[in-house]
């Protein structure tokens, strides 16, 4: 075979995708067939990466927001020389393979983020591009451009139909993320057929209105036009770029090109053969000639790029040792030396002082204390900064060029906010937090789920945690939300009962690097609880004995948040055989060893009452079918908080009555 043409290099992507989907009898061949030429030009001529080190810090980030076309990315990784063998492609969508149905960042080298829920990958990419902007502002010097990478994202019509694309694109334009380049796969096909009946937006005008640079009318099957469009994007110095690529889904398939039948199902044996003939691909399933491999890998300059960057960084380190040390630490994911000790000292101070404040205020105090120690801590709120109390004295907007910019005014965009946080958390060097009212976590929930699935280090702050928010009424009063968030695997929800637990849960969320934390705070003031040193330490275990009984307990009261104070008051009336357990995080408590869990909730004591201003069903896991739960299984009401709690049964008398009714 002579030196392969660009079309032949792109056809290697097409047929790896066709063959893998056919072998799995499952998958989406149409998008990889349609976007193969765009991918070939980008990856061979522009993408700065190193297949030998997928985690090289200054690499470009590539995100496949239309993740159903995952075989496009797997083919690119394989052809470029990543550790993804042809056997893994043959095992596409099979158990324990590195080629799952949608890209998963924890499964496959070279995958930056898990995509599939349409539009979220695009929002993740906005977060990654924001990370690059902020790191460049902090660390770059006129003579040393240490942070200099781009974020490239592929997205389809479905991504643009999802509302999150509006939220994220608007913010990207506002922030001027000029190193973000998005390719729109404009093939006019979705699962239900031609999109003329349901997607008639003027997408280029829409993005221009957001403040984007838009390159219109690019033939997505013409390498020269694609290259010209990318060169145009690279000239932008103040705006992100959308490249509008007109493509044919299922390109090359005689019977299925341009049709929804190529979107989400194998082409079929006969059509695969016909496509091979139509595109002149003379090779069998999964057969890639060495000349094709050479054509892909000979252009890879990743090793040299990383070596050049390392040399640049050595010079930077000599001139700016403190900045270099900070960047190295943040890349590695290590916290500053002494952070844990400083956090523990602050928690001990709170325990000694005993402030009676709302836990949302205690959260702000924790941010105020921890943020000066953590330049990687970056956060914001969905237009509720003065309610969520996420601002602190050192907050500086990311919309500025300040080297210490660390605060994000998201506006009313809960879904994009959370997905952008995920992008920041997946990018090295940041610990992001975002905030809204707990009831509005519904808007963001799928992005919270993706945080947990990906293991993103993101902190989701939710205030106004119950009927205790009062007069705004049932539209704003969360009922089922805590249980719903607790049920997400790998997601830690914390609901602290006072300022001490609030600071402790912030510490836990900062230390947790393998997944997200949801921190749930009250609007109303909460009583301070007395603890000894061991009890303070045990907060980190998710649940602990706050008040113990005289001898073995006959009754155990389990409570979270604002209801812990209620449990303590009830225990005082029930006598000295009552134990009170504060359980700020059921998720963390459940991970403790059996011996510790038994020491807190001994199985011999079956008389248990759980108290939480939320749905009751969740708590039978801890009280059993013979226990009692004081909670809410209906919507709230509009009234002052001091009227609502008694109305819904949150009184000392009700707790005492429930405990005594257990016999």
Describe the protein's architecture and organization:
This protein has 663 residues and is of the alpha/beta class. It contains 27 helices and 20 strands. The strands form 5 sheets. It has a 6-stranded parallel beta sheet, sandwiched between helices. Strands 1-2-3-7-6 form a 5-stranded parallel beta sheet, with helices on both faces. Strands 16-18-17-19-20 form a 5-stranded mixed beta sheet. Helix 16 (385-388) links the parallel strand 9 (377-381) and strand 10 (407-409). Helix 5 (120-139) packs across helix 17 (414-426) and helix 15 packs across helix 20. The protein is elongated, with a radius of gyration of 27 Å. The N and C termini lie far apart (86 Å).
Topology:
Elements lengths: L5 H19 L5 H16 L15 E4 L5 H11 L5 H5 L29 H20 L11 E6 H5 L1 H13 L4 E7 L2 E2 L2 E2 L8 H8 L2 E7 L3 H12 L6 E6 L22 H11 L10 H8 L4 H18 L1 H12 L6 H15 L3 E2 H12 L6 E5 L3 H4 L18 E3 L4 H13 L4 E7 L3 H14 L4 E5 L17 H6 L5 E3 L4 H13 L5 E4 L4 E2 L6 H6 L5 E4 L7 E5 L3 H12 L3 E5 L3 H5 L3 H7 L7 E4 L8 H4 L4 E3 L10 H7 L4 H9 L3
Helix pairs in contact: 1-2, 1-3, 1-10, 2-3, 2-9, 5-7, 5-17, 7-17, 12-13, 14-20, 15-20, 17-18, 22-27
């Amino acid at each position: 075979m002579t030196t392969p043409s660009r079309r032949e290099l792109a056809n290697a992507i097409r047929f790896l995708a066709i063959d893998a989907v056919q072998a799995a009898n499952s998958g989406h061949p149409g998008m990889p067939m349609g976007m193969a030429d765009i991918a070939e030009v980008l990856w061979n001529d522009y993408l700065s990466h190193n297949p030998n080190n997928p985690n090289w810090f200054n690499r470009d980030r590539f995100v496949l927001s239309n993740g159903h076309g995952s075989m496009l990315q797997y083919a690119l990784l394989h052809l470029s020389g990543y550790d993804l063998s042809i056997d893994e492609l043959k095992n596409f969508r099979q158990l324990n393979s590195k080629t799952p149905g949608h890209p998963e960042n924890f499964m496959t080298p070279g995958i930056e983020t898990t995509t599939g829920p349409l539009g979220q990958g695009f929002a993740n990419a906005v977060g990654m591009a924001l990370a690059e902007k902020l790191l460049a502002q902090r660390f770059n010097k006129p003579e040393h451009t240490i942070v200099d990478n781009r974020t490239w994202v592929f997205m389809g019509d479905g991504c643009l139909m999802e509302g999150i694309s509006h939220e994220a694109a608007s913010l990207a334009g506002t922030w001027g993320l000029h190193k973000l380049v998005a390719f729109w796969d404009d093939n006019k096909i979705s699962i239900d057929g031609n999109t003329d009946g349901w997607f008639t937006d003027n997408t280029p005008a829409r993005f221009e209105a957001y403040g984007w640079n838009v390159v219109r009318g690019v033939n997505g099957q013409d390498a020269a036009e694609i290259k010209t469009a990318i060169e145009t994007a690279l000239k932008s110095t103040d705006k992100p770029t959308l490249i509008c690529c007109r493509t044919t889904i299922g390109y090359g398939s005689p019977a299925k090109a341009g049709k929804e039948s190529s979107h989400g199902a194998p082409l079929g044996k006969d059509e695969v053969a016909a496509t091979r003939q139509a595109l002149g691909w003379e090779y069998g399933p999964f057969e890639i000639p060495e000349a094709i491999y050479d054509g892909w890998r000979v252009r890879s300059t990743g090793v040299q790029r990383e070596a050049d960057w390392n040399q640049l960084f050595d010079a930077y380190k000599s001139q700016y040792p403190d900045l270099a040390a900070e960047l190295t630490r943040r890349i590695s994911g290590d916290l500053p030396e002494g952070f844990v000790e400083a956090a523990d000292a602050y928690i001990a101070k709170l325990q000694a002082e005993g402030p009676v404040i709302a836990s949302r205020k205690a959260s702000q105090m924790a941010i105020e204390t921890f943020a000066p120690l953590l330049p990687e801590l970056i956060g914001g709120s969905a237009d509720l900064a003065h309610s969520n109390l996420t601002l602190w004295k050192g907050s500086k907007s990311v919309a500025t060029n300040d080297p210490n910019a660390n605060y994000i005014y998201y506006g009313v965009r809960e879904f994009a906010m959370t997905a952008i946080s995920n992008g920041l958390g997946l990018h090295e060097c940041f610990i992001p937090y975002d905030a809204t009212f707990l009831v509005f976590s519904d808007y963001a929930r799928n992005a919270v789920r993706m945080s947990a699935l990906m293991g993103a280090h993101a902190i989701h702050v939710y205030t106004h945690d119950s009927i205790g928010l009062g007069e705004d009424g049932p539209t704003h009063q969360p009922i089922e939300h805590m249980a719903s968030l607790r049920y997400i695997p790998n997601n830690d929800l914390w609901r602290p009962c006072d300022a001490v637990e609030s600071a402790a849960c912030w510490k836990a969320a900062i230390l947790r690097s393998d997944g997200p934390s949801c921190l749930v705070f009250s609007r109303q003031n909460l009583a301070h609880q007395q603890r000894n040193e061991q009890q303070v330490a045990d907060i980190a275990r998710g649940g602990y004995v706050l008040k113990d009984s005289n001898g073995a307990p006959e009754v155990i009261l389990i409570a979270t948040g604002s209801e812990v104070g209620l449990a303590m008051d009830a225990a005082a009336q029930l006598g000295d055989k009552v134990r009170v357990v504060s359980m700020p995080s059921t998720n963390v408590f459940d991970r403790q060893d059996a011996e510790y869990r038994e020491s807190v909730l001994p199985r011999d004591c079956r008389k248990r009452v759980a108290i939480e201003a939320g749905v009751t069903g969740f708590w039978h896991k801890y009280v059993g079918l013979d226990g009692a739960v004081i909670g809410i299984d209906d919507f709230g009401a509009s009234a002052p908080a001091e009227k609502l709690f008694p109305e819904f049964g949150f009184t000392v008398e009700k707790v005492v009555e429930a405990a005594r009714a257990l016999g």
